[in-house]
Write a structure and sequence with these properties.
The protein has 157 residues and is mostly beta strands. The protein is 15% helix and 48% strand. Bound molecules: copper (II) ion.
């Protein structure tokens, strides 16, 4: 019995400890959202703001979500007058730097939703950082505003 209580306590301490590590991470995510799209669409675009509030550069290796088969980090570039998207393998954020994801720059491409996503749904996304660290955030599904964001997206995928 005592052994069992000890184990439970140990688990509690461990989980509090790991939460503290997470909270300690200087990466701050804000305004994370995923553009709503017809259910038939296999691709969603996601946007967020990343801020490094720490003293050291942070390198993002990848993104993942239980709601999607895979997530890629893309950057829109203009080459020879053509709009193209490049897949970015890793992204380094300097101390105090803010990286804003938007249609004409960085964005997330989320492939193959595992279930139907509706407006206002919350999607958990995990960032894999260099040094085997992770950081998670929630992105909300919402409709795009009246902009020309990603209007020609399908052509490039
Ligand atoms: Cu893209």
């Amino acid at each position: 019995m005592i052994k069992k209580i000890l184990t439970i306590m140990l688990c509690l301490v461990t989980s509090i400890f790991s939460q503290a590590i997470l909270a300690d991470q200087p990466i701050v995510v804000s305004d994370a959202w995923i553009a709503d799209a017809p259910a038939i669409s296999k691709i969603r675009a996601g946007y967020l703001m990343l801020q490094n509030k720490g003293k050291h550069a942070i390198t993002i290796k990848s993104f993942s979500s239980p709601n999607f088969e895979r997530i890629e980090l893309h950057k829109t570039v203009i080459k020879d007058g053509m709009v193209k998207m490049e897949s970015i393998k890793q992204l380094t954020i300097k101390p105090d730097e803010i990286v804003e994801f938007k249609a004409e720059a960085y964005h997330l491409m989320l492939f193959t939703p595992k279930q139907k996503l509706n407006n206002s749904d919350k999607v958990k996304i995990t960032i894999q950082l260099e040094g085997n660290k992770t950081s998670s955030f929630t992105a909300i599904v919402k409709e795009r505003g009246h902009s020309r964001e990603h209007s020609n997206h399908k052509m490039h995928h």
